[in-house]
Amino acid sequence: MKGFLLPCLATASLAVFPLGAQSIRDLAAERGLRFGAAVDPSHFSESLYSDTLAREFNQVEPENAMKFGPTHPGLNVYSFASADSIAAFAAAHGMALRGHTLVWHSNLPSWLTGATWTTAQLSNILQDHISTVVGHYKDQVFAWDVVNEAFNDNGTLRSTIWSNSPGIGLAGTAYIEQAFRWARAASPKAYLYYNDYNAESTGVKSDAVYAMAKDFKARGVPLDGIGMQMHLTSAAPNLTGIEANMRRLADLGLMIDITELDVRLTVNSSGIASDALLATEAQTYHDIVAVCLKIPLCRGVQTWGFTDKYSWVPGTYPGLGAALEFDAGYRPKPAYASMVGALSNTPPVLAAADLVSAASYGGGSVSPGEIVALFNTNPGPAALAVADFTDGRLPTSLSGVRLLFDGIAAPLLYTVTGQTAAIAPFFLAGRSTTQMQYEYKGIQSAAVTVAVSPVHPALFAANASGSGPGAILDLAYHPVTAANPARRGGYVILYATGAGLTSPLPGDGQLATDTASLSARATVTIGGVDCAVSYAGAAPGLVAGGAQVNVLVSAGVPSGEQPVVLTVGGVSSPASVTVFVE
Ligand code: XIL
Asked: If you take atom 4 of ligand 1, which residue's CA is the nearest one?
């Protein structure tokens, strides 16, 4: 059979491009990253264009179709057909749609630039433009480049029709602020970005963008992210400066997107660059993806086009081209493979604060046996993978994910990109800290130090939100609710985690099948009134580390929805979980 198949395989492999097992789109999704391309809908009818786009990208952005000129061809005249076709393509292929751009000095229609306007008239025109365009796409565009290229390279504000010539009547960055406020009013949920070039690394221009962003965040201006265009050349980017700039913006709580990545190269008259330049380009593509993966708030990488067949570079920079990751025949270039490498091999990034109680979502420390959730932007399977008890025990590896404490893999409950639930191992008892690492497909994060406490109690809420009515049963195992309230003199069963060790102590990740008492003393109050605990220990039917507490509702407990607090070893659960009392 093998001999028979081989010739077929050889023929088949000549017909297809040497793509890896997984598209960049899938690799990016596993890393919680949007991977996008600027597109021109006039090429959608070209099947290689559409097929490549849908296969390799999970985000699109109109290269021109949402700009002022195309969308607003006359005073009070709007035209959305072209941009709508991009929105339809995005929806049909499960891609995110970025909007670009509302306030820019370029691509303006002549009806606007050729007439004389008062600042009041211009203000009305811009408000109408933003409200109409953002409003039109409010259910489709998840993020807008609200303002584009408002700064000069020396950090001063660019003089434009919107800023000061004549402007909309607001000095300094106030006109930018106004644009963000109009955009927010038109779409309460779209993320709003400021986008610019030559402001990627540290320097006077990025300092100016940073200063504006800091001021906007301090005053509650609705700015959610910074777009870094990243139009690069064959010169190596200043990765240290880019990382430092991304970090300071992320420290303001802003998301970062690379919005217009391309690397323009010297090309011959056929538009072909040398192998050496293509290798340099590949390194740059790798490094930009890798630096984004180092910053949890860097959420997207987008290239300005994707095939050298259609790129703004040759027309804008004569003699330069070959700037994108697919060649003019849609074959992946070395830049493509290097991005695959970056997405596959860049270590995940962890923070101690990513680890929280699965019951309360409170962090700060972890206790032995605690059911924990790790929330982060780390890689993982794009589809939720849920563990089961094989031979009565949870696995310590699930769909390529492991969570290590002092080098030992913890039992896992489920994992998906950005979220993993695990059981902290019992051997943490007696330690004051642990070194936590996250691993996906064999690539480990650096270790972060997490504080260990003997207990970290929290009650499970019925809706798993960390607060509100508790996951509480009566003795008939019916949920205690407003319609089935707890009765004074009757028992309720609480479910918790972070209650520390039990005796006997089961194995890590084992299904608890029998009772086992907590080692530390447990007490409960309902509505502030002490209630007798008749059992506190392992929860048969749950994983070891889950706790069950049976409580006698005291005669003095008040009626209505009352806070329940579990105290173990002197540490109390958050008072955010409640129980209904008759
Ligand atoms: C460019 C397009 O690629 C061209 O087709 C068009 O003629 C001019 O605009 N920064 C931006 C983009 O924010 O909107 C620009 O796009 C490229 C530079």
From this structure: 312
Mean pLDDT of the chain: 95
The CA–CA distances, whole Å, from 328 to 37, 260, 305 equal 15, 18, 11
H helix intervals, 42-80:
47-56, 68-71
Contact 181, 221 (CB under 8 A): yes
Write the CATH number for 492. 2.60.40
Residues 331 and 362 in one domain: no
Indicate if 582 belongs to the active site: no
Q: CB of 284 closer than 6 A to ligand 1? A: no
Dihedrals phi, psi of 315, to nearest 5 degrees: -75, -25
What is the identity of the amino acid at 80? F
- Is residue 149 flagged as an active site residue? yes
pLDDT for residue 376 is more than 90 = no
Rounded-to-10 torsion of CA 23, 27, 29, 31 = -170
Do 310 and 372 lie in one domain? The reply is no
CATH code of residue 279: 3.20.20.80
> pTM for the complete prediction?
0.93
Atom of ligand 1 nearest to the CA of 67: 14
In the predicted model, is pLDDT for residue 552 greater than 80?
yes
Give the active site residue among 260, 281, 325, 370.
260
370 CB near ligand 1 (under 6 Å): no
What whole-number distance in Å separates Cα of residue 570 and Cα of residue 567?
6
- Whether residue 424 is predicted with pLDDT greater than 80 in this model: the reply is yes
pLDDT for res 11 = 31
Query: In terms of residues, how long is the chain?
Result: 582
Q: What is the largest CA-CA distance in the chain?
A: 91
Torsion of CA 46, 49, 55, 60, to 10 degrees: -110
Backbone angles phi, psi at 531, to 5 degrees: -130, 140
Judge if 365 and 323 occupy the same domain: no
The residue segments making up the domain with residue 361 are 352-451
CB-neighbour burial class of residue 447 (10 A; exposed 0-12, middle 13-18, buried 19+): middle
Q: For residue 218, what are the β-bridge partners?
A: none
Same domain, 251 and 357: no
Nearest CA among 138, 146, 125 for reference residue 186: 138
